[in-house]
């Protein structure tokens, strides 16, 4: 039996239960022994996500938009375009918002969440601790696919920002600095839903992902991973890199599906937000929006 996914909402200051898109399907795949058969055969493969992506790009998929908005109670006032103006479900899924929908924390000493989502903090990546399941630790060498680069972050901190299909799916720079061009690291496309992550966090370094590094005089090197997932084989970049970037500037967007942004800091460069740390110690994700502060300088 797979338990409900609970998280703490920073805005409402209350515990809430996640409404999981495709919950029954995920429970079948990750909650039963027979589920491993279709998972291995199809779901994690790139062709499955490409096939589903084409369906979401079709004109017919437009009929899914209004029912989706109503079912998940999305705030239409935030949308830059009217629901009727979207050409397909994917067009709606990677929608832009009004300029004031996600205010960016202007404090120069803070770093902001790169995306809307449910966030988990890892204070010390070198220590074994509770990360979705007790005893799971990050394999940074596998994640970076670059042992020399990974050593910079060995005993640093990380924040996992998990996006659900109902979330705003554009991701932004969490701080200002000089950004490298994104590097593609190919892999599978497992789901990043907690139903899957509770089983095995190696999904982070097994999945297809892009890595960009932002260097800042105060915060040092900050690694940003854009991690693909089932039905999210495509990550699009809005920013033309490398270049100097500004906190809150749009970096890119995910196409249909759940997805994840992983932000990693060097040792002793940041102090993580108290509510984020408190929730993470309890094994609970913190829901916060892009532009809200997630940490500040030490």
Largest β sheet strand count, sense and barrel closure: 11 strands, mixed
Helix and strand run: EEHHHHHEEEEHHEEEEHHEEEEEEEHEE
- Multimeric state: single chain
What fraction of the residues are assigned to beta strands by DSSP? 25-35%
Total of helices: 10
Query: How many individual β-strands?
Result: 19
Low-confidence stretches: 23-30, 39-44
Q: Structural class, from helix and strand content?
A: alpha+beta
- Average pLDDT, rounded to a whole number, is 84
- Summarize the amount of helix as a percent range: 10-25%
The radius of gyration computed from the alpha-carbon positions, rounded to a whole number of angstroms, is 18 Å
Number of domains: 1
TL;DR?
The chain is α+β, with helices and mostly antiparallel strands and about 300 residues long. The chain has helices at about 25-30, 35-45, 45-55, 65-70, 90-95, 140-145, 145-150, 195, 205, 275-280, and strands at about 5-10, 15, 110, 115-120, 130, 135, 155-165, 170, 175-180, 185, 210-215, 220-225, 235, 245, 250-255, 260-265, 270, 285-290, 295.
What does this 3D model show about the protein?
- It is a single chain.
- The protein is of the alpha+beta class and 298 residues long.
- It has one domain.
- 22% of the residues lie in helices and 28% in strands.
- It contains ten helices and 19 strands.
- The strands form four sheets. Strands 1, 2, 4, 7, 9, 10, 11, 12, 14, 16 and 18 form an eleven-stranded mixed beta sheet that branches. Strands 3-19-17 form a three-stranded antiparallel beta sheet. It has a three-stranded antiparallel beta sheet with strand order 8-15-13, with no helix packed on it.
- A hairpin with a 1-residue loop joins strand 5 (130-131) and strand 6.
- It is globular and about 50 Å long.
């Amino acid at each position: 039996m797979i338990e409900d996914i609970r998280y703490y909402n920073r805005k409402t200051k209350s515990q809430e239960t996640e409404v999981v898109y495709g919950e029954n399907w995920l429970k079948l795949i990750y909650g039963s022994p027979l589920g491993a058969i279709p998972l291995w055969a199809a779901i994690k493969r790139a062709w499955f996500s490409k096939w589903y992506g084409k369906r979401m790009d079709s004109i017919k998929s437009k009929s899914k938009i209004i029912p989706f908005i109503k079912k998940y109670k999305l705030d239409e006032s935030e949308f830059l375009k009217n629901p009727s103006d979207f050409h397909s479900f994917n067009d709606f899924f990677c929608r832009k918002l009004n300029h004031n929908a996600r205010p960016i924390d202007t404090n120069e000493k803070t770093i902001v969440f790169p995306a809307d989502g449910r966030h988990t903090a890892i204070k010390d990546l070198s220590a074994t601790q509770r990360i979705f399941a007790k005893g799971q630790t990050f394999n940074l060498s596998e994640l970076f696919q670059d042992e020399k680069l990974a050593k910079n972050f060995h005993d640093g901190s990380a924040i996992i920002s998990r996006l659900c299909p109902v979330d705003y799916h554009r991701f932004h720079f969490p701080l200002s600095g000089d950004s490298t061009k994104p590097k593609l690291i190919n892999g599978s496309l497992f789901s990043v839903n907690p139903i899957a992550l509770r089983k095995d966090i190696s999904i982070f370094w097994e999945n297809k992902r892009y890595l960009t590094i932002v260097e800042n005089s105060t915060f040092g090197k900050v690694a940003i991973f854009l991690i693909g997932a089932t039905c999210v084989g495509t990550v699009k970049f809005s920013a033309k890199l490398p270049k100097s970037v500004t906190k809150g500037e749009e970096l890119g967007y995910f196409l249909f599906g759940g997805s994840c942004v992983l932000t990693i800091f060097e040792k002793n460069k940041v102090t993580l937000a108290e509510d984020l740390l408190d929730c993470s110690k309890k094994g609970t994700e913190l829901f916060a929006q892009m532009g809200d502060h997630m940490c500040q300088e030490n």
